[in-house]
Design brief:
Low-confidence stretches: none
Structural class: alpha+beta
Number of helices: 6
Bound molecules: zinc ion
Order of helices and strands: EEEEEHEEEHEHEEEEEHHEEH
Radius of gyration: 29 Å
Distance between the termini: 101 Å
């Protein structure tokens, strides 16, 4: 953890300090080595938040985009029988969870149910193949069929399973994929600095938005994020409804614009005459001579 309580103040880990966990109130000790980032660790691992994962540099960098008193907030459910530490909770009650490790869809779902108004930020560099796979699809060299929409920066994706790890596809909240990692990866086109937001699917295909790191941090900090996501989702629903109606109309429209011809000459009788000629022209031909 980034913070522990000492005399009720939230303090960062410093060599030889001891503190109290702000979630379970048990003693924690400062771990200030050279291999891992400086952090607080429980003396005994039992009884605290079982969702907690060891922090990486990536986690810490992300959390530090937000004020210190928004980080590591203990949240209690309505029944007051379960509590978890949210990585970030903004003053607008948006929870931002930074996920580096693999997570099973079931656990992902539990966390979404618990925090409700939340957004995931996922480290897209956990597996080596994840980014090259995404890039191939995103440049439409794969089979995903990434289509631009009339809203700049928003794309329709027919097969999101070829772009993103399976565990995130059915999320009920937006998932941000961050492919920058620790920043040491090759990125000649500067594509890694863009974040990709997979929206919860409302229609027949997934929607993905390209968003700059700065725009995401700003929108989540000033509270616009939740409203914007809701607006997008309403838009998606409207678009899908419109497309569905158009499709239905095309299917039910009578073919009044078809011109019937017979051996290149337009037929005055239209379809009726065409069918008549068709039926008379295919009389069985007798083989042989009489
Ligand atoms: Zn604890």
């Amino acid at each position: 953890m980034h913070f522990a309580l000492i005399n009720n103040n939230r303090i960062e880990a410093q060599p030889k300090l001891q503190g109290i966990c702000s979630c379970c109130s048990k003693p924690v000790i400062a771990k200030c080595g050279t291999r891992k980032i400086w952090h607080w660790a429980h003396k005994s691992k039992t009884g605290c938040d079982n969702w907690w994962e060891p922090e990486t540099e990536w986690h810490r960098t992300w959390k530090n985009n937000y004020p210190a008193d928004w980080q590591e907030i203990t949240i209690l459910n309505d029944r007051e029988d379960e509590k978890h530490i949210a990585d970030v909770r903004t003053v607008h009650n948006l929870v931002i969870e930074f996920q580096h490790s693999h997570i099973e869809p079931q656990e992902r779902n539990s966390r979404e149910q618990f925090y409700k108004n939340m957004v995931w930020v996922v480290d897209g560099t956990r597996l080596k193949r994840d980014y090259p796979r995404f890039l191939k699809e995103w440049k439409s060299e794969g089979i995903s069929e990434v289509h631009k929409t009339d809203k700049s920066g928003i794309f329709k994706v027919w097969f999101p399973e070829f772009c993103f790890p399976e565990a995130w596809l059915k999320s009920s909240v937006p998932v941000i994929f961050d492919f920058l990692g620790d920043g040491s990866m090759e990125d000649s086109e500067g594509l890694r600095n863009t974040l990709y937001c997979l929206f919860p699917q409302v229609g027949t295909h997934a929607r993905v938005a390209e968003i700059s790191r700065k725009a995401f941090i700003n929108a989540t900090t000033n509270g616009e994020w939740t409203l914007r996501v809701q607006e997008f989702r309403n838009d998606f629903k409207k678009q899908d409804e419109l497309e569905r109606k158009e499709h239905q109309q095309t299917m039910s429209r009578p073919p009044n614009n078809v011109k019937y011809t017979w051996r290149g000459i337009p037929l005055i009788g239209g379809a009726k005459e065409y069918r008549k000629r068709l039926s008379t022209s295919y009389k069985p031909i007798r083989k042989g001579r009489r």
